[in-house]
Amino acid sequence: MLRQHWLSTAAISVMTTALAASAMAQGTAQLEEIVVTARKTEEKLQDVPISVTAFSAKELSERGMTDVAKVAAFTPGFSFEKTNRYGAQGGTSRPVIRGQSNILGEGNAAIFVDGILFTDNILSFPFDIVERVETIKGPQAALFGRATFAGAVNLITKKGTNDFENKISVRAAEHDDYEVNLLSRGPIVEDKVFYMVQGRYYDFGGQYRNTLDGKKVGQEQSKGLNGALEFKMTDNLSANISMGYNEDDDGLAAIALQDRFSNNCFLNKPRQYYCGEVTHPKTVTLDRAGLQGKEGVHRDSTRVFGNIVYDSEDFILTSNTGLFWTNTEYGYDSTFQGGTAFSLTTVPGTTVARTATDPIRVQSTLRNEVTDRDEWSQEFRAQSAQDKAVRGLVGVFYYQRRRALEERHFAATAPTIDFGTDRVDNKAVFASLTGDFTDQLTGSAELRYAQDKIGNYKKTATVAGVTYTDLLIEKKFKSWSPRFTLDYKPMQDTLIYAVAAKGNKPGAINGDPRFPENIRFANEESSWNYEIGTKNTLLNNTLVLNLAAYYVDWKNQQLTTTFTFPTGGTQSYLINAGKSRVKGLEASVSAVLTDYFTAGAAYSLNDAKFKELNDPEANELFGNPSVAGKYMPNAPKHQATLNGKFTYPVSDEVNGFLRSDFAFNGKKYDQIYNLAHTGDQYLLNVKVGVETDQWNFTFFVDNLTNDKSPTTIVRYVDQMNLNVAPNANAALNNVAGTTTQERAFQMGLPDKQRFGVTASYKF
Known about the structure:
Blueprint: H1 6-21, E1 35-36, E2 43-44, E3 52-56, H2 57-63, H3 68-73, E4 78-79, E5 96-97, E6 109-113, E7 116-117, E8 130-137, H4 141-144, E9 151-157, E10 165-173, E11 177-189, E12 193-204, E13 208-210, E14 216-217, E15 220-232, E16 237-249, E17 255-258, E18 276-277, E19 283-284, E20 296-311, E21 315-333, H5 359-362, E22 366-384, E23 390-408, E24 417-436, E25 441-463, E26 466-491, E27 494-505, E28 508-509, E29 521-522, E30 525-538, E31 543-555, E32 558-564, E33 570-576, E34 579-594, E35 597-612, H6 616-622, E36 638-649, E37 655-665, E38 676-677, E39 681-691, E40 695-702, E41 712-717, E42 743-748, E43 754-762
Parallel strand pairs: 6-9, 13-19, 18-38
Antiparallel strand pairs: 1-2, 3-8, 4-5, 6-7, 8-9, 10-11, 10-43, 11-12, 12-15, 13-14, 15-16, 16-20, 17-42, 20-21, 21-22, 22-23, 23-24, 24-25, 25-26, 26-27, 27-30, 28-29, 30-31, 31-34, 32-33, 34-35, 35-36, 36-37, 37-39, 39-40, 40-43, 41-42
């Protein structure tokens, strides 16, 4: 059932509609036409025969979308975790497209900046320099390459123009939320040399308090400088170089733990469980003092992009080069309950001593994970002119990543763990061929052959009691990724299309040096995706209606299980297990209802279920190892959005506006058992303001109904409250003969309701 605050949403929608009803009748206003590069060439969004959701810079600004997480919240079929649940060990944040989720390892979708793979955390990337965001759904390996198993998100940055643009924009909001952006771009030599330069400062004070010291958590601070130079040497030859430097200095993440005493089901099982919607914590309990000033994220990132294009009448040659350097320290309390701030040697409320290897006792739960990530990619491609009846594209691609990771601690009893340097080398060749069978019917075929060499290097490592020097473990994976598309235009503004594409995700390495050799690697996974859809532009570009349906046959997924070390302690790792299928439906509509009122709605159904999967813990819980028929974890089945904007003239130059954006994101399960979940999320953002061509002033309320659903939930363990009888609830007493830690559930806390203002001025 919808929650009571749905009434607030309905009331605002009714109010907005009532205002629209009083506006002038339909006149000359039209919907914004967006050009995308989802197929490595510029095409109108409505002419691309694949499912793409795109937001222009204007719409990003109007909706207050300042990072990828906010884009995902209002993009059905796309979800994104703001909080990295596993620290640096868990890698980067993981976009989820069309229900194809995962928990550890590389994400099933990837994020690109100007077509160049960006595997670092994207949340502090400055959206003030973003010209467009394209969320491309379905496998994109044929043209975008590795890590696009379920889709790709491409951020296109702004470049210089012949018209000078200088802009200052500021935001001030509750909870010490402040941001300043300065942007300047224009010609150095008209028609020949252009520049863009941008600076950003962002500070956020956090919304939740830590019970141990009364201080805020969730603080964020970013400082960045970005620039670009574009050269048009001749009518045919152009080059662009862009650079960016960013510093992040964030406090402890707002992550809470629902402990074992809340467990309400399977209480007679060794680990026990929680069934239903998890609680909504108002505070966190984290040992900040024990981290000795290393708490939170401290990250320096540098990027350099180079692009050269030779464009003749018959063909286009393109070179794209990308370089990234990122250094990160991430300090956190991995008990997520301040375990080391209490007794190190006994269990709270008892006199029972912890074992000598207990992680709290040795203080290995206080972690400072230090990573050094270097990336380089190079792509060359040649493509024929797009006005030919038969047109093609060929290219080569190389990508290299080196990522060193150490887990440092703060006590002599917990030595540093060197996870070594993960290595990825990817080589690929790709091609596409498109032909017009008739004026209305077009077909295309795309193919990529890729070779991934994935490994881990350690200067020294001990395996099965033997110490090795210069130990390199690696494995090669080869793949073919085709995509076939057929599109038909019965009328100028109607497109009907069908797509069949193979998705491939490279294998993965489990880098913990304590793992035995037989679980070092997980093999690649694959899928076949089938999609049909239609795109329709109607009533003189005042109404757009798009529909798509798809089916995914998914095999050999990389899922997680737990390894228990002989010396004590556990660690999650990747295995290949099972088969799944995803059935989906997407629909979106945008309309200009009057010259003053525009509205839109979108919906996605992602019915992602396991077909075959056996799991040992499922057998413990249910007496049956099969979880066939269960939904994918961390992926909502239903997502929907509604938006409306009413603009009214205050004077000849000044317009007032009222805008509302509503998003529904269905519950997300913690794991494959479909027991604990986040609950449904209802977000409502409202904006009212005045603007001219030069300036804008907006008052906004984000999360008006103050929805408190966690952003994500993870199956975890209660490390502090070992199950020692007697408990107040006798059912929570330890199962006889077991010493297993009971389940707890970790959750990222949501952004609360926030009031604020934004202002911008162009000159």
